[in-house]
Write a structure and sequence with these properties.
The chain is mainly beta. It has one domain. 9% of the residues lie in helices and 47% in strands. The chain contains two helices and eight strands, in the order H-E-E-H-E-E-E-E-E-E. It has an eight-stranded antiparallel sheet with strand order 4-7-6-5-1-2-3-8, with no helix packed on it. Strand 1 and strand 2 (40-46) form a beta hairpin. The chain is globular, with a radius of gyration of 14 Å. The mean pLDDT is 96. InterPro entries: Imm50.
Length: 129
């Protein structure tokens, strides 16, 4: 089962990747933000693969990296261990007691349980690295 099947709003990412979004393996984690409203956890990540046929506005601007913000609402449990400045992680989502999140990397681990998960932002940029 694809991680997008657990999203409340999979249409945007499914459309951009023409029905074949990348797995959340080897993603670059930039941010993990906790908010009391919801309560909500938002992860900002660069996906490991850029779309083969990106939206026209992305292609015109010569973007090469897709960035996504994945938000988890109704967070009931969360654990964070470690952190760093260049985190390459594997992210998994399962449907146990709502949505269960596991982020694993040598530098950091995040585990959370939430009621729902959704894409709160989907953008692209030109990554020169």
């Amino acid at each position: 089962m694809s991680w997008t099947s657990l999203l409340r709003n999979p249409e945007g990412i499914t459309s951009v990747y023409q029905g074949n979004p990348p797995d959340l393996v080897g993603v670059r984690l930039y941010e993990a933000v906790l908010r009391t409203d919801g309560p909500t956890l938002t992860l900002r990540l660069d996906l490991a693969r850029y779309p083969e046929q990106p939206p026209r506005k992305w292609a015109v601007q010569r973007f090469n990296t897709t960035q996504v913000e994945i938000s988890f609402s109704g967070v009931g449990k969360i654990a964070l261990e470690g952190f760093g400045t260049d985190i390459r992680a594997d992210v998994s989502l399962t449907s146990e007691n709502g949505v269960t999140l596991h982020v694993t990397s040598p530098e950091a681990r995040i585990q959370a349980v939430a009621d729902t998960v959704f894409i709160s932002k989907l953008t692209a940029y030109a990554n020169e690295v």
